[in-house]
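BUG: 3D viewer hangs when loading the predicted structure for this chain

Environment: internal workstation, default settings.
Expected: structure renders.
Actual: progress bar stalls at 90%.

Input used:
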Amino acid sequence: MNKAILIQARLSSKRLPGKMMLKLGGIPLAEFVYRRCEISKKAGIIAIITSTDKSDDELFKYCVSKKLCVYRGSLDNVLDRYISAAEAYASHLVCRVCGDSPFVDIELVDAMFDMVEKEGVDYAAPDKKNCMAGLDSEVIATEALKRSATSATSKNDFEHVTSNIRNNPDNFNIRYIKTELKPRDLNAISVTVDHQKDMDLCNKVLKSIGDGYSFRSEDIFNALRENR
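Structure tokens produced before the viewer hung:
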């Protein structure tokens, strides 16, 4: 099966406008997440999927200039954006990664790709009680996304991509993976970039880890302990 990691990104964030172009490790956050996802051993396609809205022109042009695979779709109907991108890349399975998650756990991504492919499930995600926010992602069969689009009814379902799947376990084959990605001593910490202070923390963590993108979550935990 063709597998793609599709990174959801836009510049019109209300909490931190333009955050995808803020620098992490000297490069825009969007590119950092892209480079991080490139270490996947399972994905054949890595792409940033943004909107056709003019507010995302800068992000699109940057991706083109850096030869990053980029796709544009609906701003508000993000479910349709994922489906149309999956079709454009002929991907049977997609991993949804949020552009504000620079430290997404790639070993988990690849494990979920394997689970969905081998077990024939529609959807796989970590149990969030045991996974630090910002390390998580989701893997979904493209066919399941299409089925979800036909039954989704609320604005939330179209904006948040997988909410209709997660809220209807009788209609979709769902697997939640128990991980060990949320140490007790770091229980209150998140590594998603929602505010400037989050970006500052991620830069501190990255400085402690060193160069490159192939670090493991345990390296992040150790760096977070150093920077508390």
